[in-house]
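__Record contents__

***
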Amino acid sequence: MPTLADVAVLAGVSKATASRALGRPDLAAPETVARVRAAAEQLGFVPNRAATQLARGRTGVVAIVVPTLDNTFFTPIIGGAQARAAESGMQLTVAVHSLEHTSQLAAVEQLAHQVDGFLLTAPRGSDEIIRAAAAYKPTVLIDREIDGMPSTVADTATAFGALVGWFADKGHERIVYVGGPAGSWQDRQRQAAIRAAAEEGGVTLTMLGPYPSTFASGVAAADDVVAARATAVVPYATSIGLGLMFALMRRGVDDVVVSSERMVVDSLGLHDVPSIDVDGEKLGQVAMDQLMTLLGERKEAPEPTRQRLDVPLS
């Protein structure tokens, strides 16, 4: 098996120069980098990424922190982030911390010693706690915005407002929004957009919640939905909507339209009802791109800022 020393001999450089050309090409002359890479390719040499990262004072690992693993919303985000990290030769680890309490910062600080940076999905934590967690390592927020911090957000608020407007245009006069978890940043954005759309459309809006993003929450909200005499419901999350659909079906209520993601809408034969589908994989990819830029892995990229991804009705 060829070694770095073999590559250096073939390229006519020192072992240190060969290591620098392969691991930190920005610190070596372009012609030297080309010669060393050609030698490595000729010999079939594969650099040890872990050793390279350690030589740079890095671990080669980044972490995505999620509040729970029960909510499938986070699954494609993790997958997208992992795929993008791999393209930069990095590994992704997953940690579960809601960051709602200062006591959780100790665990994040400990994790910071083992990783190079964070992707934080913390919808319910206070700005102060999130800033404290982000102070340990370079950090990008996912699906939440805080002034002065880079973030990637799926603009579901605009989509939720557009959906309420669509229901109003179709003649629905009473609409219910079943809200998400208490303190959720996204829930606050969606509530504001929904209120504005309902006012513009001249419809009666009932706001329910807060509710956890669970099937049981939808079941629990059914009585209040019926009492509101709503003909259309916009739930915060698919799981809430599924629970509500189940509860309404058991009650024999068939004149209430509950919005959902496209897979559910199509399965129920509601082809004329718009759906809201977040591209979680893309959300994770874009957030990881931002983090890689913060870590100096994407030098050609602009400085990370706030990014909002469009979420169209489909």
Observations:
- The radius of gyration is 25 Å.
